[in-house]
Amino acid sequence: MLIRRHFPTFPFKKCINPMRAKSSSMCLLVIVLIWCAGISISLYIRSTIFSNLSRSVYLSPGGIVSQQDKRTCIVPKLPLENKELSKYYRKPPKLDCNYGYNTWVSCEKSVCKITAATKRAYGKVACSFKEFMQGPDNESRFFPAVRITKQYNLTKSDFAEVECKSSEGKYWAGLVSGFRRDSSVGKVPAVKNEEKPLLDVMMFGISSLSRNDFIRKLPQTYRYLTQTLNAHVLESYNIIGDGKAHNLIPMLTGSREVELPETRKRITGSSNVHVFPFIWNEYKTMHYVTAFNEDKPGFATFNFRLKGFVWPPTTHYMRPLYMVFEKQQRFYQTPFCWGLIPQHQVMLNYVRDFMLTYEGYPKFSFSFLSELSEGYVNLISVADEDVQKWLEELKTKNALNNTILMIFSDHGTQFEDIRNILEGKIEERLPFFSFVFPEWFPKTYPEQYENFKKNRNRLTTPFDIHETLRDVLRLQGSEASPVGTSETQNITRALSLFQRIPRDRTCADANIDPQWCICLSSEWVPQTPKIDYLKEELTNVAINKINDFTSTQRLHCSKIMLKEILWIKNLVLNEKLLKYKGVKDIDGFQPDFTSNMNKSKDIYQIQFSTKPGNFIFRADVIYNFLSGVADTGMNTIRRIDNEYSGCVMADYIRKPLKEFCFCKNDQG
Predict the structure, then answer these.
(1) Alpha helices by DSSP H, 378-528
(2) What whole-number distance in Å separates Cα of residue 346 and Cα of residue 308?
(3) What is the residue-wise DSSP string for 569-623?
(4) Which pLDDT value is given to residue 427?
(5) C-alpha to C-alpha distance for 543 and 549, rounded to whole angstroms
(6) How many CB atoms lie within 10 A of CB 646?
(7) What 3-state DSSP class applies to 629?
(8) Count of H helices and E strands in the chain?
(9) 85 by DSSP, 3-state: which?
């Protein structure tokens, strides 16, 4: 069927066809006038755009940062319970590896033995071990096989490919992971000052977990961190790029990828990533034993787009194990299991053995777990109990006595459906990051510790984590150059958490591009009858949440009511953050601002007093102006005054309740 296309008729149609024109001079005049008008409009638009650009943006080493972001940073506090996000959350079934691919050989540190169960089942067994390590072109290098019938000692590597055969002809093949003390490591260094032991640094990351998601999905781990290990959680830690590499590279090098030598695979003549100034190299100069561990080798930070390492970058390096395992994974019957243990447990055990094997040596380790959380929303929950028990074991075996422990993530969930929800978009930019210090640290370094505590609620980034890692070395006598000496760095963008970070630090100061900047501007809410009704409704949502929270102790804690709304602000996100959809290029450098996310919510911050007791609270409340529903959570409400009533000192009032309970016996 022929489809006719109908085009609009232009007023100057006849001028386009001179054969039908009544007056060629008139046509020429019309064309010239239109051309001149077009040029004038074009020049006006061009000059307007560029004059606006010169006023509103400046070019920084990391990209264009809006001058609008030069404002004091207000980071929103979002409720843990969220109806829109909760529809994506499911509790996964427990990971059961009891039906996995059984192993005939087990390793305890460097000693590998045929298991007693294997001998009972199959009689005499002989095994051949081929140790392997990092080789050129990201391939594993295998050493000659060694045949044994009793035990094998790992000497060249921490990993081996094993083949076993019983006298009855039964066959088994698999991989083993142990841990041997590297022969290149010298004697235990002498401690110069007993009051200032050498500090170990242990960083353990889990991909794609916002601060709130970590609390939701790893509740046992979070409780153990905060209640037993007294972890400090950064409340305003802001990402600076899209994806893992754009946040871990600055953390480990102090620079963005675009500021470093070219290492992309697809660029001819590019280098391997050994040219990057990794922080572990600075630790090596202070005679630290080092380790770098990351699973999912095909999507690893320095190997997915970049050319990776030619030789092991650290004393111990897990990538060779994961490379061989990835090729043999089809032989393992249960997903996410390594024989009879979970895959994530392999890394946990390896890090534990690293910490215990080098007791007395200064140690730096950086480990990153992606298998359960990169590409999955809920699966990381299956590791909660294992991670908590791992931390408990490290503490029990004194591996944390002199250790600064950092448990962290690179960014929040990046699923598109979650990104299109306001809270999901905000949480993506606020990953979990926590610090645990040795018990002696506050007394030995009081100024640094007090500064750190003040910085927990101030705007921080991966650049600051890198500078903090350098400051750990300075505390121990390193001559590392002070922050800002590099010509490519803005002196304000990298601040150690042991120094006082300005309260009024902005995204522009911290070199955070607008689409990642979580700092909100605030607008005072005017007083009108309609607005006054909304203010009271929003405030009562927070008060009801407090009363629900204290209801378990109603025998001791009074119900509270609104006394006065002291002030209310509307917290506003910048437009580039709202419009950000993703990246246009494979490298993650070109932002795509075509998101059509419907903005149906406002965020309000309210300060109010209550009765009885005249307590003063501040709460962040999210209001859906389409449905008329307001929501908040206890994690968004905090006491502003410091007055506490008598019964809160009693043991029967749990610590989280203390700041919200007004004791009935205090009502006079």
Answers:
(1) 384-396, 416-419, 422-428, 441-444, 446-455, 462-475, 507-510
(2) 22
(3) EEEE--HHHHH--EESSTTS-SEE--------EEEEEEEEEEETT--EEEEEEEE
(4) 96
(5) 10
(6) 9
(7) strand
(8) 19, 27
(9) helix
What is the largest distance, in Å, between two alpha-carbon atoms of the chain?
108
Nearest to 129 by CA among 144, 116, 118, 114: 144
Instruction: Report the alpha-carbon distance of residue 413 to residue 37 in Å, rounded.
Output: 49
Q: Token pair for residue 485?
A: 């000496």
Amino acid residing at 298? G
Give me the residues paired with residue 369 across strands.
Answer: 206
Q: Which two tokens stand for residue 334?
A: 């249960």
Please check whether residue 226 is in contact with residue 233, taking contact to mean a CB–CB distance below 8 angstroms.
Answer: yes
Q: Which residues contact 146 (CB under 8 A, 6 or more apart)?
A: 128, 129, 130, 152
The proportion of the chain whose per-residue pLDDT surpasses 70, expressed as a percent, equals 83
Domains, the chain, in order of start with CATH, read: 1-49 (no CATH), 105-177 (2.60.40), 196-510 (3.40.720.10), 521-666 (3.10.450)
User: pLDDT (tens digit, 9 = 90+) per residue, 603-657?
Assistant: 999 999 999 988 999 999 999 988 999 999 999 999 988 766 656 655 544 557 8
For residue 176, which amino acid is it?
A: V
- Cα–Cα distance measured from residue 268 to residue 623, given in angstroms and rounded to the nearest whole number: 52
Separation between Cα atoms, residue 339 and residue 125, nearest integer Å = 19
- Give the pair of three-digit tokens for residue 11: 């007023």
> How is residue 77 written in tokens?
């506090």
The rounded distance, in Å, linking the Cα atoms of 375 and 419 is 14
What one-character DSSP code corresponds to residue 480?
Answer: P
Q: What CA–CA distance (Å, rounded) separates 202 from 589? A: 30
To which H or E segment does residue 30 belong?
helix 24-56
